[in-house]
């Protein structure tokens, strides 16, 4: 990585940011702004437009008009593909600039951010661009006197509300298939991660997205996000974030136009290590990365470690050693393994879970405190808490921070019961050298993604989505199109 370039980019002032509505940059309707605080040092990085309900409504109106007049949905899919491919090239060409800006705003370590943010977003846009002209309808096997055609039509105006941990990766998981399908979009970034989404949206315009096809409105969730959820003109709402917000979105849909709502609501993912795992050293190293990279602010983070009792103490010691070796700190130093926690609020939340566990007599094996406080930034030591009981808050609630809860088990049945003992069902892992057990566990664990002898590996070709209270619908893969395409039957008498 080009250290000199990173140093130069991190010193650049960041201009105050306006919304992007109908192809133009606009301030909030009432002139309001809000700070973007850098978690690197706790200082104000720049200011963002504090969106109003009127701003959200203006963006929806622009998106509605752009959808209805066919400036995008009416193009041949191959034409949409060209624009999206060009957009991906522009994002990739500025990857380092975009990544550094994002790190300054959300604190993810640059090594991960570069790959997982602009480069991943470019790859996602390309994947869906390439698929745009390969989405065929169907001819139904009807009787000879009728023709049943099944069309797949773009669903209309999409509201997309995204979080701060991977704004571009998750944003592109929504934007790629929505735009490739021919929908128009109003995107609401998280309060603490808006700048890079605005930047790539501008590149989209430069690539040829017509005005109004992609609009970005910054501001507070309960104002801008709620306005999208309550809108009568938003046809589909896609969301990644907390369960509490997800519930509000479903209520708002019920109160308004019954828009379809797709939710990705995080997890409390079990990482199950059996004594017969092929390589316990490797399992410990990968498990540490699976919870501590991006300071645990990962939807699929392996935040519950379940270890067979016969290897428990050794394994926990190995894992704690990895946690202690991790370089935590300045996220713009390429050697950093875990950067800053996104915000003071998120840091406080993680610490409060640890305090609660400590007070309940659980064992803090390593970490457990804020570090590097003199920088003014929000940093937390990778934390391992052992002897966690199944009913503890640390075993049931998503922390979204660098905190691993460890619980021993004795039998496969007990491992399954513990693994499934949460309201969530997003991701999981099983470490075993026994092939039959691996397949049995994949079947028995209720989650949208089960890793075997690894954690966190994946690519765009496979779907990501939760069961139980982790949500519904899927990001990634061709299945993601299902959210943005309506089926329409034409029944023709012959
Ligand atoms: P997290 O805990 O990950 O910050 P949130 O659900 O609070 O999860 O935030 C995810 C996204 O949801 C952000 O873009 C945020 O602004 C938005 N949001 C928060 N509250 C609401 C709400 N009441 N209505 C709509 N969107 C919201």
Describe the structure.
The chain has 494 residues and is α/β, with parallel strands linked by helices. The chain contains 15 helices and 21 strands. The strands form six sheets. Strands 14-17-18-13-12-19-20 form a seven-stranded mixed beta sheet, sandwiched between helices. Strands 9-8-7-10-11 form a five-stranded parallel beta sheet, with helices on both faces. The chain has a three-stranded antiparallel beta sheet with strand order 5-6-21, with no helix packed on it. A hairpin with a 2-residue loop joins β1 (19-21) and β2. α5 (110-131) runs parallel beside α6 (167-181). The chain is globular. The N and C termini lie far apart (65 Å). The relative contact order is 0.14. The model has no long low-confidence stretch (mean pLDDT 98). The structure holds adenosine-5'-diphosphate (ADP). Adenosine-5'-diphosphate (ADP) is lined by residues 161-163, 188, 190-191, 221-222, 225-226, 229, 241-242, 245, 248.
Question: What tags apply to this protein structure?
Answer:
seven-stranded mixed sheet; 15 helices; 20% strand; alpha/beta; 494 residues
């Amino acid at each position: 990585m080009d250290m000199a370039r990173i140093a130069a980019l991190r010193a650049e002032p960041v201009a105050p940011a306006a919304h992007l509505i109908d192809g133009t940059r606009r301030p909030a309707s009432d002139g309001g702004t809000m700070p973007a605080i850098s978690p690197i040092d706790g200082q104000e990085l720049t200011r963002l437009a504090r969106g109003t309900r009127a701003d959200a409504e203006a963006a929806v109106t622009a998106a509605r008009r752009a959808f209805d007049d066919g400036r995008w949905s009416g193009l041949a899919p191959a034409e949409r593909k060209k624009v999206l491919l060009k957009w991906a090239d522009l994002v990739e060409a500025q990857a380092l600039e975009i990544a550094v800006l994002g790190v300054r705003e959300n604190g993810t370590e640059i090594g991960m951010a570069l790959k997982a943010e602009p480069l991943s977003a470019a790859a996602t846009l390309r994947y869906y661009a390439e698929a745009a002209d390969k989405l065929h309808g169907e001819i139904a096997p009807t009787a000879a006197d009728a023709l049943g055609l099944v069309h797949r039509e773009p669903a209309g105006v999409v509201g997309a509300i995204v979080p701060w941990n991977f704004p571009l990766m998750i944003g592109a998981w929504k934007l790629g298939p929505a735009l490739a399908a021919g929908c128009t979009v109003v995107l609401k970034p998280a309060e603490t991660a808006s700048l890079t989404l605005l930047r790539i949206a501008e590149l989209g315009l430069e690539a040829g997205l017509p005005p109004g096809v992609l609009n970005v409105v910054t501001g507070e969730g309960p104002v801008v996000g709620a306005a999208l959820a309550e809108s009568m003109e938003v046809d589909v709402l896609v969301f990644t974030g907390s369960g509490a917000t997800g519930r509000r979105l479903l209520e708002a849909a019920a109160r308004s136009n019954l828009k379809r709502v797709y939710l990705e609501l995080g997890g409390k993912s079990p990482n199950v290590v059996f004594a017969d795992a092929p390589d316990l050293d490797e399992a410990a190293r990968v498990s540490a990365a699976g919870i501590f990279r991006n300071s645990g602010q990962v939807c699929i983070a392996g935040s519950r470690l379940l270890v067979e009792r016969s290897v428990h103490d050794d394994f926990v010691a190995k894992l704690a050693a990895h946690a202690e070796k991790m370089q935590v700190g300045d996220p713009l130093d390429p050697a950093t393994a875990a950067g800053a926690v996104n915000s003071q609020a998120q840091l406080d939340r993680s610490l409060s879970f640890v305090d609660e566990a400590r007070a309940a007599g659980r064992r803090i094996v390593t970490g457990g405190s804020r570090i590097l406080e003199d920088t003014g930034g929000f940093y937390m030591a990778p934390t391992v808490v052992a002897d966690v009981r199944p009913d503890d808050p640390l075993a049931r609630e998503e922390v979204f921070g660098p905190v691993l809860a460890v619980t021993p088990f004795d039998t496969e049945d007990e491992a399954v019961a513990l693994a499934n003992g949460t309201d969530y069902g997003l991701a999981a892992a099983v470490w075993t050298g026994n092939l039959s057990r691996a397949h049995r566990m994949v079947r028995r664990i209720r989650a949208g993604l089960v890793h075997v002898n690894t954690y966190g590996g994946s690519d765009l070709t496979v779907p990501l989505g939760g069961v139980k209270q982790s949500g519904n619908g899927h990001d990634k893969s061709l299945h993601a199109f299902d959210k943005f395409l309506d089926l329409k039957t034409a029944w023709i008498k012959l």
